[in-house]
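Record format v2
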Amino acid sequence: MNSAAQELEIITILFVDDNPDEFVLMEWLVKGGADQNTELVCVTDIESACKVLDERSISMILLDNKLHLNDDFRTSVPVLRSKAFTGPIGIVSSSIEPEYFQEFEEYGADFRIGKNELDRNAIGFIIDEFAKKNTNLSDD
Amino acid sequence: MKHQKPNCLADLERAINKLDFYRLFKCLCVKYELDLLTVFDLNNWPEETAIESLMVVVNKDDSNLVDLDVISISQDNLIFHNMRNEMLHDMWDSPTVSEQVKFCGDLSKSLGISVPLHTPNGRHFGIWLVMQKTIADKSDIDQLVYSCKLVFQNFFNEIILPDSMPVISPRELEVIRWSSEGKTSVEIAIILGLSEHTINSYTTKILQKLQVVNRAQMVAKAIRMGLIK
């Protein structure tokens, strides 16, 4: 993809968090952090996220770790992957201290980050590192 | 004085991808109130004036710094000469800093610190730090430089060095196996329940480890080496 095409590319981020108050903050972070066009789609549960994946193309998913009291990303990420979503999935959590976060790759996630670490620069880094299309690796 | 690992780097041994190291460098930015921390790959400088930045961490939200992914540095740049050729870090006051590193924007009240980093296998990197002059204290700076070197050492071992070591992990082996079945990155991602980004990262690492240029050669070499049948 050339640079002109990259400029036209819209990064669509699906944000899954059971607390809608977080949506406004994430909208602000993404708008300020990305150096290209972005669209943020927000849903509060994994079922709605799956529905979005069925209906439209998503560049990256930011997933709250604890959508339900007894669940965490170890159950929710495989559900999203079962929809044949092959884009990056990042786990956002108030704490990434628990030992099971170290196994995030085994469950199909690409990265984890604490909510207190998220600022516009971090979002910019995440988009650059994970969401932009990597076209250097063809399937030949 | 013996330096100690600061508390903010408690996660150092748990870092496994570039974002983890971004987070660690960001912790240092917050702790030492740095405006900017950049890790440069200086292996081709000064023959090539284009410098690749491996990591750019900015510590202020209203920053309007220019894109530092690739910048052009002339051969007579003193700061980059220090990082490329010297062993000890150096500090740069504002007139010099502003003139030598215009890409950092207005640095009239800032102090720059250049930290040379040389690896045992002869590769050259450097960390460029920018902080407010008023905050700078010698013992703090020594501790900061030590901390930066500590994070970089792990960054090098975890991110840069594996690219040059021919040790194939079980996951990478799975990618080779599925590639040998003719599967594309997307198809392998679906099969393994991972992202295409992760599969491409694995494939890129495999290509570097096996010193091959494409997937076909990767599969052929893996068969020759007995990695797959």
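The interface with chain A takes residues 14, 16-20, 22-23, 26, 56-59, 61, 63, 67, 171, 184-186, 189-190, 193-200, 203-204, 214-216 of chain B (CB under 8 Å).
The beta strands of chain B are 34-41, 50-58, 70-72, 90-92, 110-118, 124-132.
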